[in-house]
Amino acid sequence: MGFFKIFVIVLVICAFFIANTYQLQSYEIQALLQLRKHLEYPVQLDVWENYHGDFCSLTSTLHMSITCQDNSVTELKIKGDKLVKLNEFHGFAIPNQTLSEGFSIDSFVTTLTRLSSLKVLTLVSLGIWGPLPDKIHRLASLELLDMSSNFLFGSVPFQMSRLIKLHTLTLDANFFNETFPDWFDSLHNLTILSFKNNRLKGQFPSSMSKITTLTDIVLSHNVLSGKLPDLTALSKLLLLDLRENHLDSELPPLPKGLTTVLLSSNVFTGEIPVEFGTLNQLQHLDLSNNSLSGMLPAGLFSLSSISYLNLASNVLSGSLPSHLNCGGELGFVDISDNRLVGGLPSCLNTISDKRIVKVGGNCLSLDTQYQHSEGYCKQANSDKKQITGKQIALLAGVIGGIVIVVVFLLVVLFIFRRKRHARNMVDKHIPPKVVQNTQPGVPSELLANARVISQVANTGSQGAPSYRVFSLEELLEATENFDQSALLGEGSVGKIYKGRLENGAYIAVRSLNVYKRYSNRNLKLRLDLLSKFRHPHLVSLLGHCIDGGAPDDSTVPRIFLIYEYISNGNFRAHLSGQLCKSFSMSIACILMLG
Ligand SMILES: *[C@@H]1O[C@H](CO)[C@@H](O)[C@H](O)[C@H]1NC(C)=O
Ligand SMILES: *[C@@H]1O[C@H](CO)[C@@H](O)[C@H](O)[C@H]1NC(C)=O
Ligand SMILES: *[C@@H]1O[C@H](CO)[C@@H](O)[C@H](O)[C@H]1NC(C)=O
Ligand SMILES: *[C@@H]1O[C@H](CO)[C@@H](O)[C@H](O)[C@H]1NC(C)=O
């Protein structure tokens, strides 16, 4: 009797399963087999070979799974073993790393789009290479897309903004190298967005601050620059990971629900907002390796959930309050390499297995862990009091203004003089002027100003380069004799080359031809052009070089302006952009005036 009952139950269960077995449409089977071929028969798909059963009932493995609904594939997950081990990828197939040269990402995605009911698509570490085709948007049901650890490059196609059902978009560890996409407004259900380890440039996408469904934003290790916008509208946000970018604003207020905030190795400036001490859910905070200054908000240490607090390698100053409370969960504190003075509060000073505390590289009155002498921190503290960021900007603005006015007056004076001169000596050529290999007639105050501005513009960067005169040999070496491959561009004023100095610093070299004969009109035109000339990659002027030409006066003298070269403009670049303009004008102009 008992046996019979069990038999019936087994029969019923079997019948249930048979009834629920989906017979995949044959064109979808064809598509799957085609995908296997595109992927060059990875071992993970060996089970598909000569398989005559129903693909929908294939046993899932760690590396392959298929789920169906209504005779269609709705989930496809394939994980290969082609890990990305490269730092550079030039867009060509690499044996044993990427799929072969014969792989066409375009045909691959075309085949994929035949699985039109896909909701979940995971294609990880398969060596897929190429720019992601925008027809991927035809997979209109996609809710999860993960193509991490492949060799995708170029831009993230705008058409993907039509995948409005997406809740997870993960494209980690690829080689996307264009501007970061900013079309997230339409993705109303997006919760996880992860683009870590790519080469995406530009600003933090502001459209993201409107997607209130987001829980995870992971954009670490890209080249994002500029400002981090206010994200407080993202009330569901738990994880914000922007490590290793070039973000250089002050820290904005953060949404209250965050548990993990990782902002290390950027260029964030200003003080740590006191409001961070009210992020009650916060467990993990890493602000290390930035340019944060001011006092430590004591509230951070006493947050009820905080367990990891890393504020190392900033320029935080002042002393810690002696009555500081540490939260019960606090297990790791790193405040090393700052400008802190005074004693350590007892909750950080007690030796305990429960809490690791790193405080080296400050000026604390301690015997343990290396400390600087008090002067090191005092100086930093008083320097900062004298010049704050705003004051630097103001000072730079004032100096820039003075330079512009002086240049303007010089130009007016010059033109005026030339006009009179021309009237007196019609048709007589102005005698050629050879620019000497010294700095003839350059007013010393102006050069001094240039130096001040150069330093101001560089405040914050370590070992700020000061203005100097370069030799022609140095430039020839840096640019490999002005090789064509070093040419960055050519403006109406002259050519720009990229170069590398002996010390490894990248520079941009702009050559200006100084014609021996020029009319007023010509000069004015050139100055106009010069003043309009701007280049996003040029940051601050490092110096100049004058090639006086041969003594027999048969060659045209050349002037070179040498700029700091940074491949991604940042806040400082924008600040100094204005200044550069006035520098190059003043210097070019002075040299032309001879
Ligand atoms: C992106 O990478 C590809 C492949 O290396 C390259 O051809 C392309 O020029 C790069 N684009 C940018 C903007 O750097
Ligand atoms: C690629 O891998 C195969 C087998 O693992 C090996 O025989 C071959 O030498 C490798 N080729 C390269 C270029 O590394
Ligand atoms: C977003 O998610 C909600 C709830 O899961 C769902 O009802 C809605 O259809 C989704 N919207 C889109 C555009 O997929
Ligand atoms: C600090 O940040 C810079 C870039 O911002 C990075 O190159 C450097 O490796 C970082 N240092 C540490 C110790 O993380």
UniProtKB/TrEMBL annotation:
Give the residue spans that cross the bilayer.
392-416
What GO terms are given for molecular function? ATP binding; protein kinase activity
- Record carries keyword Kinase: no
Q: Does the keyword Cell membrane apply?
A: yes
Q: What are the entry keywords?
A: Cell membrane, Glycoprotein, Leucine-rich repeat, Membrane, Receptor, Repeat, Signal, Transmembrane, Transmembrane helix
Broad class of where this protein is predominantly found:
membrane
Q: Which SUPFAM superfamilies match?
A: L domain-like, Protein kinase-like (PK-like)
Q: How does it sit in the membrane?
A: Single-pass type I membrane protein
List localization entries. Answer: Cell membrane
Gene Ontology cellular component?
A: plasma membrane
Task: Output the Gene3D superfamilies linked to this UniProt entry.
Answer: Phosphorylase Kinase, domain 1, Ribonuclease Inhibitor
Q: Which top-rank group of organisms is this from? A: Eukaryota
Annotated signal sequence is none
User: What residue stretches are annotated with the Protein kinase domain?
Assistant: 482-594
Family the UniProt entry places it in: Belongs to the RLP family.
Name of protein: Protein kinase domain-containing protein
Q: What is the originating organism of this protein?
A: Solanum commersonii (Commerson's wild potato)
